[in-house]
Write a structure and sequence with these properties.
- Helix 1 (about 5-25) packs antiparallel against helix 2 (about 225-260).
- The chain has helices at about 5-25, 225-260; strands at about 35-45, 45-50, 55, 60, 65-70, 70-80, 85-90, 95-100, 105, 110-115, 120, 130, 135, 145-150, 155-160, 170, 175, 185, 190-195, 200-205, 215, 220.
- The strands form ten sheets. It has a three-stranded antiparallel β-sheet, with no helix packed on it.
- The chain folds into two domains: about 5-80 and about 225-260, no CATH class; about 85-220, no CATH class.
- It is elongated and about 100 Å long.
- It is of the alpha+beta class.
C-alpha cells in the first residue's frame, strides 16, 4: 500500500481536530471569561532508508540521508490566558479581574474550582454565587437590608445598612494564581480544576498583591477570542484539509495506474 495514503489521512484527521478547536472558540465568542485554545501539532515518526553520513567509499560519505515522514498528530490544546476586553454593565455583582488570578468557587461535591467569570448573583440566603448557584469562596453574604454594595480593587466588600448606620464590612474576596494556568483542566460551566501540570493554587491572597490582579466592580471580562483570527485559521485549516484529500486522490490514481498495467 502506498504510504502517502496513510500520511495524508493523518493530515485530514489533524485538520478535522483543528476545525473542532476553532469551532469551540467561535461558539464561545460571547462567553464571559472564556479563554481561547490553540491546537499544537507534532510530526510523526520517520522511516529512515539511509542515514546521513553513511560511508560510500574510503573517505567519502553521503551528505544527506533519506527519510520519509509518516504524517502528523495533535499533541496539545494550549489555553491562551490573555486578557479579554472589558464590558461595563453597572451591575454591582459583576466583577472583573484586571490582571492575573482566579476566583475560588465551591462546587456541590465540595471541590474547589476556579473561574475568571465574575458574573455573580445573590441566592436566597444573600450569598454571592455563580450562574449555576455555586458559592464564591470565601463566602460573601449580603444581609437583608444591605444596599449600595461596594467592592474595592483589593476585594473588600461593604454595604450600606441604613441612613444613620455605618457601612458594614461583608468580607474579603481573594484570588489565587497558578504557575502554569494553561495546565488547568476545563470542566465546563466556566470552571477549571487543578492538575499535576498546573500545580497547586498560589494563595489565596488579596487582589493587587504578589502578582495578583485587581478587581473592578461593574464590569465583566469578555472572551479573548478574536473572530477575524479564528476565521483566517479556519480558512487555512480548510485548505490544508483539501490539500491532504487531493494527496489521497493522487495516490489512489497512481495505484490505479499501477494496478491496470498489462504485460
Amino acid at each position: 500500500m502506498m504510504p502517502a495514503l496513510w500520511t495524508a489521512s493523518t493530515g485530514m484527521k489533524a485538520q478535522d481536530f483543528n476545525i473542532s478547536v476553532i469551532s469551540n472558540n467561535l461558539a464561545n465568542v460571547n462567553t464571559t471569561g472564556f479563554k481561547k485554545s490553540r491546537p499544537d501539532f507534532q510530526d510523526l515518526l520517520y522511516q529512515t532508508m539511509r542515514e546521513a553520513g553513511t560511508p560510500v567509499a574510503e573517505g567519502l560519505e553521503v551528505p544527506n540521508g533519506i527519510q520519509a515522514g509518516m504524517g502528523v498528530r495533535p499533541v496539545a490544546t494550549q489555553k491562551i490566558f490573555t486578557q479579554g476586553e472589558f464590558q461595563q454593565t453597572g451591575n454591582p455583582f459583576d466583577l472583573v479581574i484586571e490582571g492575573d488570578g482566579f476566583f475560588r468557587i465551591l462546587t456541590p461535591d465540595g471541590t474547589i474550582a476556579y473561574s475568571r467569570d465574575g458574573a455573580f448573583k445573590l441566592d436566597s440566603t444573600g450569598a454571592m454565587v455563580t450562574s449555576d448557584g455555586f458559592r464564591l469562596q470565601p463566602e460573601i453574604i449580603v444581609p437583608e437590608g444591605g444596599t449600595a454594595i461596594s467592592v474595592g480593587i483589593d476585594g473588600t466588600v461593604t454595604a450600606k445598612m441604613g441612613n444613620n448606620e455605618p457601612d458594614q464590612d461583608l468580607g474579603q474576596i481573594t484570588l489565587v494564581r497558578f504557575i502554569n494556568p494553561a495546565g488547568l483542566k476545563n470542566v465546563g460551566r466556566n470552571l477549571f480544576l487543578t492538575t499535576e501540570a498546573s500545580g497547586g493554587e498560589i494563595g489565596p491572597g488579596i487582589p493587587g498583591e504578589q502578582g495578583r490582579g485587581t478587581i473592578q466592580q461593574g464590569y465583566l471580562e469578555m472572551s479573548n477570542v478574536k473572530v477575524v483570527e479564528e476565521m483566517v485559521a479556519m480558512i487555512i485549516a480548510q485548505r490544508a484539509y483539501e490539500a491532504n484529500s487531493k494527496s489521497i486522490v493522487t495516490a489512489d490514481t497512481m495505484l490505479g495506474i499501477a494496478n491496470n498495467l498489462k504485460r
